[in-house]
What does this fold into?
Amino acid sequence: MIDTIKTHLQDVEVYQASSLDEVEQFRIAYLGKKGHITQLFADFRNVPNEEKKEYGQLLNQLKTEAQTKVKELQTQLSGSQTPKGLLNDITRPGQPIALGARHPISIVRDKVIDVFSRIGYGLSSGPEVEDDWHNFSALNLPEHHPARDMQDTFFVQTNPDVMLRTHTSSVQVRHMEANRPPIRILSPGRVFRNEAISARSHCVFHQVEGLYIDKNVSFADLKQTLMYFTKAIFGTAEIRLRPSYFPFTEPSAEVDIYWGLETEADYRITKGTGWLEIMGCGMVDPQVLKNCNIDPEEYSGFAFGMGLERMAMLLYQIEDIRMFYENDVRFLKQFTSIS
Ligand code: DAH
It folds into this structure.
C-alpha cells in the first residue's frame, strides 16, 4: 500500500499538462471526491498498525504535492491556452488587425474640402439649431414667403424663432456678418427637414455650402469654379446651368453634369437624358449682402450648395440613402480602401 502512494508521488512530480482542461482532469483524478487520495484516506483503517505512521505521512505529502501541482499548472496555463514554447516563437504569423473604414459621407466631404482648398477656400461652420434670421429672413425668405414651403422645418418646441437649420446657407449669413470681403468659404454640415424617410430622402442629411464675395465677381467666375470642381470630383467639366429660383441668389441656376448614357443604370439615374442635377447656385442677391452689412455697390459674389449624400450615392452607386445611417458594417467596410 505504501508503494502505491510512492508511485503516485512520482507520477504527480513529473506530471505536465498542456491545457487547463487537462489540469482539471488531473485534479479530479487525485483530489476529487472519488479520486486516488480520498480513496487512500478511506483505506487508512485497513493499514497494518506498524505501517500507519509512514502511510499517514506519505499520504499527507501526496495531498500537498498534488494541490501544489494543480495550482502551479493553473497559473502557468491561464491567460493563454498556448503551450509555453509557442509563445516565444517569433516566427509565428501575427494576429490580423481589422482595419476600420471611413464613412462615405466623410470621404466625399473631405474630397470637396480638398478640391476647394486648392483654390483658396477656407472652412466656416455654424450652429445646427438656428434662429429665423439666419436660416430664413436674412436669406430673403421673409415670413409667409411661399419659398419657405420648399423646406419643411423642424421647430424647436413651440418657439417659431428657433429651428433646426434646413440648409447650410445659414452659415453664409453668419460668416458675412462677422467677416469683411474678400470671403472664400466652404461650410459642410448637417441639415434637417421634416420629410418622410425613403430610399431617396431623409430628414437628416448633409450639405456643403460655398460662398465667394469680392470686388467684380461675375457669373463667369462662378461657372469656371464649378467646372473646375466637377472635373476634380466627377472627372468631367461638361456642365450646364439651368435657370432656377432661390430667394437668396439672383440669377439662380441648377447645375447639371453630363453623366453619359452608356449603361442601363445611366439611363435609369439620368432618366434617359444623360444629364444629372448635382447642385444649386447663383449670384448672391444684393439684398442678402445688405442684410449682412456688405455694400452691394462695392462687392458681388456667388454661392452654391450641394447635398453630400447625393454626391456619395452617385460616386459609389449607392441606391438607398438610408444605408448611410444604418451603421451596417457590411456596407461600411466596403470603403476601407477608399480615401
Ligand atoms: N440652400 C439650398 C437648398 O438647401 C441650396 C443652395 C442653392 C445653396 C443655391 C446656395 C445656392 O448657396 O446658391 O436647397
User: Anything to note?
Assistant: The mean pLDDT is 92. The chain has 13 helices and ten strands.
